[in-house]
Amino acid sequence: MIVKVYKNAETYLLDNEAILLEEEAASQLVLYDAYQSRQNTKENKGLFGVVMDEEQVILHFSNMPSNNMAVYIQNENKDIREAAMVLADYMAENQIQLEGLSAKYEICEAFIDQYRKNVKCTFAERMATDIMEIRQIHDIKLAEGKTRLAIPSEVKFITDWMVQFQIEALAKEIDYESALIKVTKLIDNNRLYVFEDPYETIVSMASATRKLVHGVAISYVYTPEEYRGMGYAAANIYNISKKYLDEGNEFCTLFVDKKNMLSKRAYEKVGYYIIDEIYEYKLLQA
């Protein structure tokens, strides 16, 4: 097996975009990295490549500055563990900076074991999520209320929610200023949605974070504790997903914590189904 590295995202996409688009929601992390890098090669150069066995591609990977290395499996019939180990050796031998790893569990396990044979470090698991996708909305009874775009005057309390989301869902803290910048940008770009109950109290939020070629990725799904269990998040996801599907997108996709069975079942009622998984590990230098 060999690692083939491309000189830039453009050449990588020329060879691989068509195959990645066949499973766009599953390959979205690598694809989105490549699109971001292609749009701005100076700030988002990144590293893109594949692991091959003879002429067959087994794994795709992207390694963007400040992001985890993302790995997508193209060929499940090959030895993906060996491919992950070959990739680990390549990254270690070439002293390529890693922030962490986002991939299926089997890839993460094999990569980390091999990488640590060459580099003194530890990896900490941060997230274990299922990738879900929807292509057709189910007809279900929704919680009363409405979904609407967030407005600039709501940025401060939504920023508080964003900080809480990062702590609860991502097991990490971010500084308030970073969260404020993120929320402001999402609101300005008309990508952050809130759900109001019948009394016009805002009770849940979600955002369309990534526009893909044929679909939209939804993230930052958060409901304050006092409003949970009332169906508000599911209603918000239903309305947002319906909006984007009605506008001509082929699918919407989101990541849900493997341990969060309540959310998973709620999304399944809306019409989402699991298509893959992503584990996230952060690299901690020894």
TrEMBL record:
Phylogenetic lineage: Bacteria, Bacillati, Bacillota, Clostridia, Lachnospirales
The protein, known as: N-acetyltransferase domain-containing protein
Domain N-acetyltransferase, residue spans: 145-286
Organism listed in the record: Herbinix luporum
PROSITE patterns registered for this protein in UniProt: GNAT
Domain of life from the UniProt record: Bacteria
Single annotated GO MF: acyltransferase activity, transferring groups other than amino-acyl groups
Pfam families per record: Acetyltransf_1 (PF00583)
